[in-house]
Amino acid sequence: MWSRVDEYIKKHKLLDISYLYLVALSGGADSVALLLMLHEAGYRIHAAHCNFHLRGAESDRDETFCVSLCERLGVELHRVHFDTQPYAEQHKVSIEMAARELRYKWFAQLSKDIGAEGVCVAHHCDDSVETVLLNLVRGTGLRGLTGIQPKVLVKGQTPCVILRPLLCLSREDIEAYLASKGQEYMTDSTNLESDVMRNRIRLQVLPLLRELNPAVTETIKRTADHLAEVQKMLDGIVALYKDCNILNLSELNKFTSSEYIVFEWLKNYGFNGNQIEQVMHAATGSLFTSSAGYDLLVDRQRLIVEPSLKPMKKMVIPEEGKYLIGEDAFRVRKCAPYISKEAAVATLDASKVTFPLTVRRVEAGDRMVPYGMKGSKLLSDMMTDLKMTLFAKRRQLVVEDSHGIMVWAVGLRTDQRVAVTETTTEVLEIAFN
After folding, report:
1. Could you give phi then psi for residue 389, rounded to 5 degrees?
2. Count of CB atoms within 10 A of residue 206's CB?
């Protein structure tokens, strides 16, 4: 039995004999088998037991058993007690989710405190198959059909590496191993109840499937393994676009289907499945906002993502000097006549501009007389002519003088009414950084 586990550990590079590991010990058959195997193989391990106080005397019985087992083996045991029910009510989550959050936060902190390389948990092949069927019933994408993975990084304030050395074994294998060792274990009575969906799959669905195919567990696990390899390949493709904020859809045609890449790319920015489905059929100019604070713009054959635009307070410039507006800076000074050829520097006839100046974002109805023209034009039309995206349009800054003249659409055009001419004796220079 150990040879199979040892081979699996080496194949997936899960453990190193020189490092310290935590073993999540509930007292059930799976975790007891894991503890025994790693202890007999000579790995440096500590055990960690959580008492969730959800099963009355059973919870205390399991804790007492774990204490006795670790004392006999000479394995250091760490224990914690949780008020799981109040936590679930306070955070408005299910009991299962509350227990998961509590234990993984504790595992992460405990691992850090004792210098453990990771936490070994006793999920086995049957657990992985149940997870596949559970996800299939609830509805899932490809990743949900890959089953439980041997090594996972649980992100959070304190990251935690979860290791699963027993995924190569079935529940039957584990029970046979414990019987050969004459090792007792505790049984969680709630695992025998069929009112929880996972338990119904375990107690009702899988036995029915085994009537159709006695080897159904191995068949589903093998299929999940194949899909996991496909997932790795797709993750490699998605990684090519991970750090970009513009996705060119026409470029993705080389992959035949682009929907998966778009889905994974947008999921990183907090967009949900329903939004992503709408994006795939949205018209140019459509705008979406994610729960993570990002906006998505559909711009012809491009998808553009940027942080949601925060409100901007107008900035008043009463006189010459340097002014900061967020991370941007304006420098205003008077100088000898010249005409700037830099987009970030405006040169205006100082005698035609009246202080105070106001710097703000463009607003609906804003008009100016663009340099070189006679008639006025809506700034919105001017930006459309320049083929600016909606994101660029809404970020656009303007400088307005006290008479309401848009003296400068920053980086784009100055106003003809304040333009430098042959008669100009002094220039007002506004530089934007």
Report:
1. -75, 165
2. 17
State pLDDT tens for residues 116-152. Answer: 999 999 999 999 999 999 999 998 888 899 999 999 9
Write the CB contacts of 3 (distance below 8 Å, at least 6 apart in sequence).
Answer: none
Strands 397-400 and 406-409: antiparallel
Based on DSSP, count helices (H) and strands (E) in the chain, helices before strands: 14, 21
Is the CB of residue 69 less than 8 Å from the CB of residue 45? no
Block residue for tokens 């393994």 = 225
In whole angstroms, give the CA distance from residue 369 to residue 375: 6
Measuring CA to CA, how many Å separate 157 from each of 77, 83, 104, 106, 109? 24, 21, 11, 11, 9
- pLDDT at residue number 192: 47
Can you tell me the distance from the alpha carbon of 71 to that of 73, in angstroms, rounded to the nearest whole number?
6
List strand residue ranges (DSSP E) for 12-125, in order: 20-24, 44-51, 77-81, 119-120
CA distance 220 to 216: 6
Of the candidates 360, 371, 357, 362, the residue with the CA atom closest to the CA atom of residue 414: 371
- Distance between CA 27 and CA 69 in Å, rounded? 9
Please identify which residue in the block is written with the tokens 């993705």. 252
Contacts of 93 (CB under 8 A, 6+ apart): 101
Could you identify the residue written with the tokens 């590496």?
Answer: 161
Structure tokens at 333: 């000074």
For the chain, give percent helix, strand, coil, nearest 5.
40, 20, 35
Helices (H), 182-291: 197-200, 206-212, 216-239, 259-267, 273-279
C-beta contacts of 205-211 below 8 A and 24+ residues apart: 205/133, 206/126, 206/129, 206/130, 206/133
Closest by CA to 41, choosing from 74, 65, 78, 5, is: 5
- 133: part of which helix (H) or strand (E)? helix 125-138
DSSP 328-385: EEEEEEEES------TTEEEEEGGG--SPEEEEE--TT-EE-BTT-SS-EEHHHHHHH
Average of per-residue pLDDT across 406-420: 96
Q: pTM (2 decimals)?
A: 0.70
Plot region of 82 (φ>0 → left; ψ -120 to 50 → alpha; else → beta):
beta
- Give the tokens for residue 300: 């012809």
Give the helix/strand (H/E) hosting 35.
helix 29-40
